[in-house]
Amino acid sequence: MKQLILVMSLFFITQGIYANEEYLSWQKIEKEFEKLNLNTKALSHVQCFFSEHENTVFRKKVSFDDSGLNRCSGDSSITIDSKRIFAIIDYTKDSDEKRMYLVDRLTGKITPMAVAHGRFKAGFLNPRVSFLKNSVSKSRYYSNEMNSNAPSSGFFIAGIKYDGKFKQSLTLHGLEESINDNACERAVVIHKHLLVSNNRAYVLSSGCPMVSRKNIDQVINALRSKEDINGNVEKNGGLVFIYGEREKNWPQLSCPGSFNL
User: Fold this and answer.
1) pLDDT for 120-134, tens place per residue?
2) Which residues pair with 59 in a beta bridge?
């Protein structure tokens, strides 16, 4: 019993320390990116976003589906409530690289991993690869259209965790009008896939960022929203930034998204 009390005391003390500490400077985080040879320009856009939109209230597309999941329902406004950990997905890199990274702003820990991207247009069982705009290795084309099977880029806020076709999945709410705001309705979610390892992706998705079975729990737990016992969102999730062809042309330290405000 004494050991349990001691462990709980240390836990709350640690939580208190973390709650009172300030996040690392962006310069320190950038140095960690440089050590791992990660995309510092993509990081600069995230820095801009937190600087300009940390407390912005965005309009969220709300809809109901007939599956009973209601992952796109709830409040029509959304903010970044979970600011400590964010994710960058760098789709300008090939799929045989660790191009998704979780970043902890408090500790500076960066967790790189492989991630798959969407095929764009061709059906899941369509063997005619010529119909695919994206190859397994490269993601060049993006879309916000329903049934496009394409990746979307830009800024997202993570939503609820739910059990879908691929079991545990993480909802994404796109913040940019006509760029990614159909993400939730399109069921563009983060989920696992057998053909994605920690080091590379061997498969295309129907638009979803797919990670390995090893990494899915860590990703979801780091970014998901928090719900009450009735399933109502009490705290929105973390930022997810997908860096693609559009974002590659943005100036350093800018975030000129077409935001739903």
Assistant:
1) 976 555 545 456 689
2) 77
**pTM, two decimal places:** 0.88
What tokens were used for 224? 């998901």
Q: Provide the token pair at 219.
A: 């990703």
| Ordered DSSP codes for the chain | -HHHHHHHHHHHHHHHHHHHSPPPPHHHHHHHHHHTT--HHHHHHHHHHHHHHTT--EE------TTS--TT-S-SEE-----SEEEEEETTS-TTS--EEEEETTT--EEEE--B-B--SS-TT---GGG-SS-SS-------STT------EEEEEEEEEEETTEEEEEEEE-BTTTTTTTTTTT-EEEE-TTB-SS-B-S-BSS--EE-TTTHHHHHHHH--EE-TTS-EEE---EEEEE-HHHHTSPTT-----B--
Domains of the chain, first to last: 23-248 (2.40.440.10)
Per DSSP bridges, beta strands 239-243 and 154-164 are: antiparallel
Token representation of residue 213: 């079975």
Residue carrying structure tokens 């057998």: 194
Query: What φ, ψ does residue 27 adopt, rounded to 5°?
Result: -65, -40
Percent of the residues in the chain that have a pLDDT greater than 70, as a whole number: 85
CA-based nearest residue to 118, from 70, 176, 186: 186
Q: For residue 251, give every residue at least 6 positions away whose Cβ sits within 8 Å of its Cβ, in sequence order, or none.
A: none
Strand-pair partners of 88: 101, 241
* Spatial separation of the C-alpha atoms in residues 212 and 191, rounded to whole Å: 8
Summarised one tens digit per residue, pLDDT across range 138-176 is: 999 999 999 999 999 999 999 999 998 889 999 999 999
Residue type, 110: I
